């Protein structure tokens, strides 16, 4: 009898381990199979569209609003909580597009109108419009199945990850109800040259100043995603039409490698994606956050801007060290042949250094002459708007895989595959 028990022990232990292994595997699989909405992004560069004559890079996708669905090209911006497209009565956004008219509530059988007029400010432009609620579809139909998106560590780097849009993008458009603004007037026409109709905010707040609920929360309530997270991968090859991927609901492990470094937002209920910033250095030379007695530095993040913005004096130091030349419009030019020998820029967050290579912060532009002369400029611009604040936009975010977590109020960065 004892011999029989001794014989059965290894089998019993094996079965227990097998069951535990299967259970563990189920949990791992459950994490891997978290519901995500994967949104391919289109990249578009408009020459001389910036305030200083610099090119503007937009990363956008197509959504459809209403019943029947009306298409709009929108850019997702983590720097705002507002969502807006043009009203049918005023449409400067898409002057260059074939989507020639704005949103009109009476054309949609599912539209709910709010009679209040709202005023907002976005990128220093004052906008005014009415709020509506309607059905929104993330429409993937205009992306060619089988087209590859590639990920690399830097512009021109060899690629190691290929994404097939036909498999990573949802075959059926994701559909949910969402409030948004239809803009009827603006203080200037800054957005006119851009190939976007509007902007959908992915700010850190659960609601915007105009009472619009978060896209992420609404997707979660509609059972389209499991987690209140989203992440971005931007294609570092700027001349590619495939701008990258927005992952709503979590992360795509095919797009990053190694550890995710998490950083808590300074304020638990912050409405903006901001982090404390310790130092900014160019090579080994300190250039930013040098006066902590003034309250320290902060980094705020935006996917609606294609240049980095920093305090005026700090950015002037960068120009001086790089020996740039000011153009007639105000951007700082640099000889394109110098790019390989330029120093990297380091942003230190919670003691972790995040490096920008010259290929991240120096951009190429083409002049308007028949010769299409190529010049390079430093995509870091000075601002006097906020002391000790750096706006880290797509040149920074494109250097890393970036994750934004609303549940725990944190931002994570990982190395690109």
UniProtKB/TrEMBL annotation:
Key words, A-Z: Disulfide bond, Hydrolase, Protease, Signal
- Molecular functions (GO terms): aspartic-type endopeptidase activity
In this chain the Peptidase A1 domain maps to 59-414
Indicate the secretion signal residues: 1-25
Residues annotated as coiled-coil are: none
Give me the disulphide-bonded residues.
289-297, 336-376
Q: Which InterPro entries match?
A: Aspartic_peptidase_A1 (IPR001461), Pepsin-like_dom (IPR034164), PEPTIDASE_A1 (IPR033121), Peptidase_aspartic_dom_sf (IPR021109)
GO biological process terms on file: proteolysis
Instruction: Say yes or no: keyword Protease present.
Output: yes
Pfam families assigned to the protein according to its UniProt record, in alphabetical order: Asp
Is Protease tagged as a keyword? yes
Its domain of life? Eukaryota
The family line of this record is: Belongs to the peptidase A1 family.
Q: Which PANTHER family match?
A: BETA-SITE APP-CLEAVING ENZYME, ISOFORM A-RELATED (PTHR47966:SF51)
- Record-given protein name: Lysosomal aspartic protease
Taxonomic lineage of the native organism: Eukaryota, Metazoa, Ecdysozoa, Arthropoda, Chelicerata
